[in-house]
Design brief:
The protein is an alpha+beta fold and about 300 residues long. The radius of gyration is 29 Å and the shape is elongated. The N and C termini lie far apart (about 95 Å). Strands 3-2-1-5-8 form a 5-stranded mixed β-sheet, with no helix packed on it. Helix 1 packs antiparallel against helix 3, helix 3 packs antiparallel against helix 4 and helix 5 crosses helix 6. The protein contains 7 helices and 10 strands. The chain folds into 2 domains: about 120 residues, no CATH class; about 150 residues, Sandwich (Immunoglobulin-like).
């Protein structure tokens, strides 16, 4: 009988290590496949959405929620695998004496694994990110409602651009905010709403937290556009999310989502000369949301308060 050489033992040892690593990688893929069989909403709710708010008002918000949960789960799986490898190496290769451990020059299967696997993960995340981004930015050829959003220091103007939303003078109906008036944008539910955004001065940002979406409002002649379909009626407070000056924090507005029938009644009331609060009251809606309030532009008054 001949004793096996040190080289043969080293090769066997590397083969066993490689097999374990490949098996661990296969287990990670299996975990990902198992998770893919679960509903993203179920995973998200079980861990409180990983910090992402639930119950979005639009299909776009739910698509972004799904992307967020999927990315967080993938990152968690990768983290668990890496942590497992670290602890396994710490325990398996802890110091057992003063002899120098067996030295190896390279491990081809391992190097292939940690080179190819990250590219696969990045490719999958890139694909789903691109798909979600395309859906969120998609514009339909014929939206149901068109609204122009004009930002200025430090308030908002909303203009209804549809042909059916013109006043007696032939100009689009509009509402303009002031220091003592929070502008209200009334929109219908279950309709495709196209927003055209522009600014009269500096960069602002149109942000309705309940929509889980915001987009910069750029100075003229630049214009940003986006489109959403709000599925739930209610009053949703909006804010400027881009620091734009002294009264940036007071640059509030309100989005009031009503049923399509009430929206038509609201537009008809505006055509008769009623203001936005009066038109809202005429269709059975409260004039203002309780979470917004006007602001005083006098710096002395602000300091005193």
């Amino acid at each position: 009988m001949f004793a096996r050489g040190a080289g043969s033992q080293a090769r066997d040892r590397r083969s066993r290590v490689s097999a374990r690593i490949v098996g661990l990688g296969g287990s990670a893929v299996g975990v990902l496949l198992a998770l893919s069989g679960c509903s993203v909403n179920e995973i998200g709710k079980s861990v409180s959405g990983f910090g992402w708010p639930e119950n979005g008002l639009t299909e776009q918000s739910r698509r972004m929620y799904d992307l967020w949960i999927g990315s967080a789960v993938a990152a968690l799986v990768v983290g668990v695998v890496v942590w497992g490898l670290i602890f396994w190496c710490v325990i398996r290769y802890r110091k057992r004496g003063e002899d120098l451990p067996l030295q190896t020059r390279f491990n081809l299967p391992l190097e292939i694994l940690y080179t190819v696997l990250p590219f696969l993960i990045i490719a999958v995340l890139f694909y789903y990110t691109a798909v979600t981004q395309t859906f969120v930015n998609k514009l339909s050829p014929n939206p149901d409602v068109k609204v122009e959003t004009v930002a200025f220091k430090w308030n908002w103007q909303f203009r209804y651009l549809d042909d059916s939303s013109k006043g007696p003078d032939g100009q689009p109906l509009s509402t303009v905010g002031a220091s003592d008036y929070i502008p209200i944008l009334v929109v219908p539910t279950d309709k495709k709403i196209r927003f055209y955004e522009t600014s009269k001065d500096v960069i602002h940002s149109f942000w309705v937290p309940d929509l889980l979406f915001k987009r910069d409002v750029l100075p003229q002649p630049a214009e940003n556009q986006f489109e959403v379909t709000i599925e739930k009626t209610g009053s949703y407070v909006g804010r400027c999310a881009e620091f734009c000056g002294a009264f940036h924090s007071m640059m509030n507005f309100e989005v009031r989502a009503v049923t399509p029938d009430r929206y038509d009644q609201f537009i008809a009331a505006r055509k008769q000369g009623l203001s936005t609060p009066e038109a809202l009251k005429s269709i059975g809606e409260e004039p203002f949301a309780t979470t917004t309030k006007p602001f005083d532009t006098d710096p002395r008054a602000r300091k005193a308060s």
